[in-house]
Design goal:
binds iron/sulfur cluster, alpha/beta, 2 domains, two-stranded parallel ribbon, metal ion binding, TIM Barrel
């Protein structure tokens, strides 16, 4: 099998990992090298550096052979898919080649488990070490870690990688036992805890070697079992608090050929994944707790976004007076983000905020106006029930599908 055939298989196999968002990369300038303009097929994803830059990464697996048989995974031992394996040298060479052609700014590398967890982790570390020490590679490296590998190997990975991720995969221990019995939630969390401690030690001691400066992330698969959004977001909240994760990624379960028993034959609506990302964003950036966003429900609504759903369920908190409320309260108004909330507070130092100011800030006025008071506007709140507002503001519940 030549390198391009391996690349086709191992880039395609990596697309199921959401820990960095997949996407076709636009063709980038090839620095004048003729005939090198086509970054064809999959294999490029985007991620964000600690300073907020968006970077393109070569996203591949070292191998899609795997000793494990996680039921939701296309690369599981019993899956009938074409298999391939790169050597660490091949991954190094591909990364440098793509980097020199200006297709990518770095590498996202994951792997099935081959021979043993330690052996697999050693191979991943070997790639990162070779890139950094032999080739002085200064691009971005995101390494997936094998949770039950020797902590010393994970420590080495953190010295070479910008970001590490340990996939929790399923939000509950019961789900993991049922669908990935060879994995242990305890071991996964232990690995996350070790990474947190190593990062804190590195940050506290200026002369200490750097350790995963872009932090750690994880992914949860949504819809592979019956777990509801309340449990998923509750798990995410705990992971953010306990392990200081930078991001939890949600990946809608994708039905796979020859599905084994115990996993659904249909994908959940992609809109559900989208609502989870919106709720996650509100938890990280707006101070919402998972329980606040869910209320008494098990799942987030699909017809309206979670912030609007929360506002409709808490009409007693509205309308918000934009000339008096603090920024954090204004940012809870549907259609007003944190940046505009700060602009509004800034603006009222000079004069009173008026309806047209919101238009100038490009706020979606249909969404905003039932919930705010300005110097020249007050909504006819008492006349509008939450149900009719919801009907008026609901987006089409598009049932996006993975297939
Ligand atoms: S260990 Fe990873 S690659 Fe292997 S079957 Fe499980 S999820 Fe898939």
């Amino acid at each position: 099998m030549d390198l391009s055939e391996k690349l086709a298989i191992l880039a395609d196999a990596a697309k199921y990992d959401a820990s960095c968002a997949s996407g076709g990369a636009p063709k980038r300038e090839s620095r004048g090298i003729e005939g090198l303009g086509a970054s064809t097929g999959s294999g490029i994803c985007h991620s964000f550096t600690p300073d907020g830059r968006c970077v393109s990464l070569l996203k591949i697996l070292l191998t899609n052979f795997c000793l494990y048989d996680c039921r939701y995974c296309i690369n599981r031992r019993s899956s009938n898919v074409p298999r391939a394996r790169f050597t660490p040298e091949e991954v190094v060479s591909l990364t440098l080649d793509f980097y020199r052609r200006n297709y990518v700014d770095g590498l996202f590398l994951s792997s099935g488990v081959i021979r043993s967890s330690n052996y697999t982790m050693e191979q991943l570390v070997q790639v990162a070490k070779s890139l950094r020490e032999q080739h002085q590679f200064r691009g971005y490296i995101h390494l997936k870690t094998i949770p039950d590998a020797d902590p010393e190997l994970i420590a080495q990975a953190g010295r070479y990688a910008d970001r590490l991720s340990v996939n929790i995969e399923l939000p509950t221990e019961i789900g993991l036992e049922r669908l990935a019995p060879e994995k242990s939630g305890r071991t996964i969390k232990l690995a996350m805890g070790n990474i947190r401690v190593a990062r804190e030690e590195s940050e506290a001691e200026p002369r200490a070697p750097r350790f995963a400066p872009a932090g750690q992330s994880t992914q949860m698969i949504v819809g592979a079992d019956e777990t509801d959004d309340r449990t998923i977001l509750g798990t995410a909240e705990t992971l953010y608090g306990s392990y200081q994760l930078k991001r939890v990624y949600y990946s809608a379960f994708s039905p796979i050929p020859d599905s084994p028993s115990g996993v659904p034959s249909k994908a959940p609506p992609l809109l559900r994944e989208h609502r989870l990302y919106q709720a996650d964003f509100l938890m990280r950036g707006y101070g919402f707790a998972a329980a606040e966003l869910l209320g008494d429900a098990g799942n987030l609504p699909l017809d309206v976004d979670p912030k609007l759903a929360w506002a409709l369920a808490h009409r007693e908190r509205f309308p918000v007076d934009l000339n008096a409320a603090p920024a954090r309260v204004i940012a809870r108004v549907p259609g007003i983000g944190m940046r505009n909330a700060k602009r509004i507070v800034e603006l009222r130092r000079a004069r009173r905020v008026r309806y047209q100011d919101l238009v100038r800030l490009r706020c979606p006025m249909d969404k905003v106006k039932p919930f705010v008071v300005t110097a020249d506007y007050r909504p006819p709140l008492a006349e509008t029930s939450s149900e009719s507002l919801r009907r008026a503001l609901a987006t089409e519940p598009v049932q996006l599908s993975l297939i």
